[in-house]
Each structure stands twice: as structure tokens, then as C-alpha cells.
Amino acid sequence: MHTVSEYALVRGGALFMLLGSMALASPAVAARFAFDERRTEVRFAYTMAYSTQRGRFTRVSGTLDFDDKAPEKAIINASIATGSLTTGEPLVDNELKGAAFFNAAASPVIKFKSRAVLASAPEKAEVEGDITVNGITKPVKLAVTLAPHDDAALKYDSGSKIFLAKTRISRSAFNMTDYQSMVADEVDIEIEAIVRPQK
To answer: Is residue 20 part of a domain?
Structure first.
């Protein structure tokens, strides 16, 4: 026959094993990364007549919640200052910032928020989300690559990563319909960033 103390020991051991297994099964906590605003820009390209025109936004902020063991649970939030648009041509900049296009005065921020992540490879994923441009929100898909950085300037910043994302939108979906006879509807967008672990 077992004594009361033996039963207590067995039950205690079982409880310890149960708690241990629960700890092992508990979901990992995603690390938060912040977009390094000094090393982040959003580039865009479109066709006008028979040539490719390019520009970029230089003020970008955002966060990435990411766990290497569960990349499909990543969460991305990004904000782009519309007024930071530059093409190198002041007349073009003023036109693109005007009411007929990005409408920087009324819509000073372009936003992106992810909704779902489909990891296709260890460092690649398709990210579905919503983008708000010119006050209009539409669904969009981004092809994203997230890889360890190779920037010598970040050699002391352990854990930083290179974030690259590409997508294509139709400008008419965001009420940008001027110059349709000269300017193509499709706009290619590329985001390049260094994301740093938040401390």
C-alpha cells in the first residue's frame, strides 16, 4: 500500500511535469522591430509616355512584430509622410503633392497595416494588408523579404534585419485620375528598410 506522503510525491511530480509541458507549449512572444527612419525609404515608379518616371518618400516610420519560429504571425504597421515625396523636379513634386494626386495637405500620411502573412520560404512571404492613400483604403499584397543585415554600419546593432517589400497599385483606385492619356495607371512601389530590435 502507498502512504499518503507517497501519493503526495507522485501527484507533485505529475503536476511538475504538467507545468513543464505547458511552459514548453506556450506560444513564443514576437520581438518588436522598429523601422530605422534614417535607412528607410519608399520608392515608386510609373510610366509617362514611353519613359519610366521615379520618385521616393524619405520619411517612413513603422513597426514589425516578428518571431523566427512563427513568421506567419508577423504584424507590420507603417506610416509614410506624404509631404516627403521627392522626384528631384520641384514642379513634378508640387503636382504629385497636389489635390489631383497624393493630396498631401488633406492626407498627410499614407498608412499600411498587415492582415495576413503567408510564408513561402525562410526569408520570404506574401503579406496581405490594407493601404490608405489619399484618404482611401484598399487591400494590397506585398512580396516581402526579411533577411539578416549586411550593413557594416550596423555591425554593433545585433538582430537588425533588411526588410524589402514590393507591390503594384492602380492610381485610379485612389482617385488619382489626371493625365490618363499620358500617365499609366499602374504604379510600382518598393520599400527598403533596416528594422532594428526595439529595446
So the answer is: no
